[in-house]
Design goal:
Layout (H helix, E strand, L loop, with lengths): L1 H44 L8 H81 L5
Length: about 140
């Protein structure tokens, strides 16, 4: 019963870990997209030698600034998600260790019970053998 509870807790923690890992992957993917967009926008519109109006350059500069801000925010989201994921992983590892420890303890108890039963059986067999030697079969 205790082992089943420990197994359930470990599985629940593993489920949360999978969710947090998926969230982290999503945040990283979004960061990658923002960075790629930033890079391609800089390459496409960054050539100032091409005749752009002052107004276009100001809009471009404003947009690049907002995009850089979005990247900074997304980097913070990734860092927070990674930190949370690490905490959930540690929680899962604790639950996993607890389950394994319980399994090990139960196995040692079973082996101890088996050894004790074997000793009792051997003692009964020895007593039976002694009784057979001491008294004649039809005496």
């Amino acid at each position: 019963m205790v082992l089943r509870v420990a197994e359930h807790q470990e599985q629940e923690a593993a489920g949360y870990l999978a969710q947090y890992q998926q969230q982290l992957a999503g945040e990283r993917s979004q960061l990658d997209q923002l960075e790629q967009y930033h890079h391609s926008y800089l390459n496409e519109y960054g050539d100032t030698s091409v005749g752009h109006s002052v107004q276009d350059m100001m809009r471009y500069s404003d947009f690049i600034g907002r995009l850089a801000g979005a990247i900074d925010e997304q980097q913070l989201k990734v860092a927070n998600a990674a930190e949370q994921c690490e905490k959930v992983m540690q929680h899962w590892q604790v639950k996993r260790h607890k389950r394994k420890s319980l399994e090990s303890l139960i196995e040692r108890l079973r082996q101890g019970e088996n050894a004790e039963l074997e000793r009792k059986l051997q003692k009964e067999l020895d007593e039976l053998a002694n009784l057979n030697r001491q008294s004649p079969p039809y005496g």
